[in-house]
Write a structure and sequence with these properties.
171 residues; mainly beta; 7-stranded antiparallel beta sheet; 1 helix
Length: 171
């Protein structure tokens, strides 16, 4: 009887291991409530804001850490709360004037490093808002990577002051 139970145990364990190996290469979408965390990537300090209650645009800020040994490409973003959502950055021109531009081709996140999406820097720009970004509401977004996507729910926080991140990972 012990031998049969042992064989059954080994069989079940082999099925679990085989399923896990299969699923690692086939994970396409991750879900989160407010904070996305996976063995590969970690997204934290995420929030959205608009300049005013009637604004036609808004922005999303967060930190994304790549804990893997390979480069990851964040190629875009999708959401139903705006007509368009794009990766943007503020840049200073040769005359010292700041302007906001769309990031073409996505953003590469080096292994064991992080990108900070912050006010006055890289961010997700929401254009043509379909609803007001009122404090406390939660908006869904999808971060699109080269081979997977991350479904996130971001809380609107219009009162959050500009802050300098205490993030410690190398950049």
């Amino acid at each position: 009887m012990k031998k049969i139970l042992y064989i059954l145990y080994i069989f079940i364990l082999a099925i679990i291991v085989a399923f896990r190996i299969y699923s690692i290469g086939h994970e396409k979408t991750y879900h989160t409530a407010h904070h996305f965390n996976h063995n590969e990537l970690k997204i934290s300090e995420a929030y959205a804001r608009a300049a005013s209650p009637n604004a036609k645009s808004g922005a999303i800020f967060f930190i994304i850490e790549n804990g893997t040994d390979v480069e990851v490409l964040l190629s875009g973003v999708k959401t139903d709360v705006a007509k368009r959502a794009e990766l943007h950055v503020h840049k200073e021109n040769k005359n010292g004037v700041m302007s906001m531009t769309k990031i073409e081709g996505g953003l590469k996140i080096a292994p064991k490093s992080a990108l900070i999406f912050k006010r006055g820097g890289q961010h997700i720009m929401l254009m043509g808002l379909k609803q007001s970004l009122e404090n406390g509401i939660i908006i869904p977004i999808e971060l699109v990577f080269q081979d997977k996507s991350a479904q996130l729910k971001i809380t609107v926080d219009n009162d959050r002051p500009i802050e300098h991140s205490s993030h410690k990972m190398s950049h």
